[in-house]
């Protein structure tokens, strides 16, 4: 076992110990051979750990304490908006009337739940400037894919099946080209100009009659607002294409400007990012789709609608719908958390969220300027990009800096992305962090930069305080060990 590592639950096992107590069987036993084929019946007992309840609880508590999460430390993961999840959200999501509901219940028995979902849709329409919303998509990437399928269906319905290309900036999120490919499109890259925005002349050269859409986030992945968004809109609409808005960076502009007002035809949102649903750990997420009136008839079905002044229900009569993209109606628990957040903040509160997120990012960027290279020296929005090029010249890579941050209980920022900035670090503090937390992280980054100059080995050999040091990342990715094998010796 590694030094400082927790024993595996199998290694805690002692014969005869149990963590449960069940009453004696008071009904006749069942002979499985009368029910299952012989090949499905276990011939030997499963090799399961034998452990007491107390030891089991201590085991999993110890493991959980080794995890890093937003409740245990700063998580400045650029482009992912890892903000605090208010605990009132959890309280609402656990209310019995919501938590005990089931998607197969009759509409009449879940009117309260349907009203909440419908009201959330109305709020998201207002926030985005879209005409219609579907909450069905399970996460952001599925939202991208869903929106692109709708755009494809729109073009096909208009006899425009030659539109086979989706334009994606070179600074785009990696899911954008992936989603376009999965949706059956060819990806065309548009370059950034020297200011980190879309190069308008290059966009003009790649946009044409085969353009189905352009995928943008605004502000972009560099944290810079696309000042030429109206020109971009006119170019794409001028060739018959659609504008798709990646909502990953919506945290910077809420109650300030809306994607619909910029000219976008479709948008996805990340309720598990911008609107404080839990993020990470495999989900669940939520990636609602908003569209303008022209695309609304292609939305996934069913839609949750208001039938009259007091009744809510499902609309299945949608002949041009692309169909269902998620079992049932999406991840209802995340809806409740987002709805609670939006209602508790209100429009003025959401505006302050964006203002504080932008303030925090600019404060950090200016304090780190000089210590690290700043590739775009202008005010940013909710996130910013710095480069470790100075440190690389001393033999210390951005990866080394990220590993060293672990020794100070900070989750590293996103590194080596976007790809158009060498030795990139993308940092997003969000609005929920205090000045003291920001200063602590900044001071640590400056200390690591000084170590890179004066004592590089301490950075190159980091992390020093974690259970596991540096892994062979290639081997771990290609030959992971995912199952326990008992030591027969």
Automatic annotation (TrEMBL):
Cofactor(s) in the UniProt record: pyridoxal 5'-phosphate
Molecular function (Gene Ontology), one example: glycine dehydrogenase (decarboxylating) activity
Enzymatic reactions: N(6)-[(R)-lipoyl]-L-lysyl-[glycine-cleavage complex H protein] + glycine + H(+) = N(6)-[(R)-S(8)-aminomethyldihydrolipoyl]-L-lysyl-[glycine-cleavage complex H protein] + CO2
Keyword terms: Oxidoreductase, Pyridoxal phosphate
Enzyme class (EC, first level): oxidoreductase
List of residues that carry N6-(pyridoxal phosphate)lysine: 273
One Pfam family linked to the record: GDC-P
Keyword NADP: no
Keyword Oxidoreductase: yes
Domain Glycine cleavage system P-protein N-terminal, residue spans: 43-309
EC id: 1.4.4.2
InterPro entries linked to this entry: GcvPB (IPR023012), GDC-P_C (IPR049316), GDC-P_N (IPR049315), GDC_P (IPR020581), PyrdxlP-dep_Trfase (IPR015424), PyrdxlP-dep_Trfase_major (IPR015421), PyrdxlP-dep_Trfase_small (IPR015422)
Start and end residues of each Glycine dehydrogenase C-terminal domain: 354-454
Function according to Swiss-Prot or TrEMBL: The glycine cleavage system catalyzes the degradation of glycine. The P protein binds the alpha-amino group of glycine through its pyridoxal phosphate cofactor; CO(2) is released and the remaining methylamine moiety is then transferred to the lipoamide cofactor of the H protein.
Family stated for the protein in its record: Belongs to the GcvP family. C-terminal subunit subfamily.
Subunit structure: The glycine cleavage system is composed of four proteins: P, T, L and H. In this organism, the P 'protein' is a heterodimer of two subunits.
Protein name, entry field: Probable glycine dehydrogenase (decarboxylating) subunit 2
Primary gene name: gcvPB
